[in-house]
Amino acid sequence: MGILKRNVSAKSVRSAVTIIAQGNQLSGDMRVCGKVHIDGVVEGRLEVADDVTIGRQGVVRGCLVANHVNVSGLLEGDLICTSLHVERGGKVRANVCSDKLSIDPQGCFVGERRMQRSTPRLEYHPDDSGKAAIGGEVLDYALFDTLPDRITLSRQED
């Protein structure tokens, strides 16, 4: 028999972990406040305020927005995050916007990765001189036009 207290807050001190177990499938749009671990299938848009782990059996298809993402399973679609790590055996086929990207030697990444462009870190204010002030330094932003839009990395097998 349990005892219920009336003046105990429903909010937890620690963030909760939402687990989508193997065999379960979710479709649609979801917003989650805590961490998420996925061993099932998620299709649609998933916005997570904290970290996401996609387990070996986990599959995410659609748009994922999260803080840190670790992939051991499959991620297909679009990803916006602070950092992405593709574990051994993990597969990412996505357009990724992240500050950090790391891939284990047996991990697979196929897609496009762009750096995040958040206003507080990079202030871009062009003036009439054709230059921009970024972090107090003046840069000639015409140099950015000479950079390629896409870089493709491949490994040659011996």
TrEMBL record:
Belongs to the bactofilin family. This is Protein CcmA, bactofilin family. It comes from Marinobacterium maritimum. The lineage of its organism: Bacteria, Pseudomonadati, Pseudomonadota, Gammaproteobacteria, Oceanospirillales.
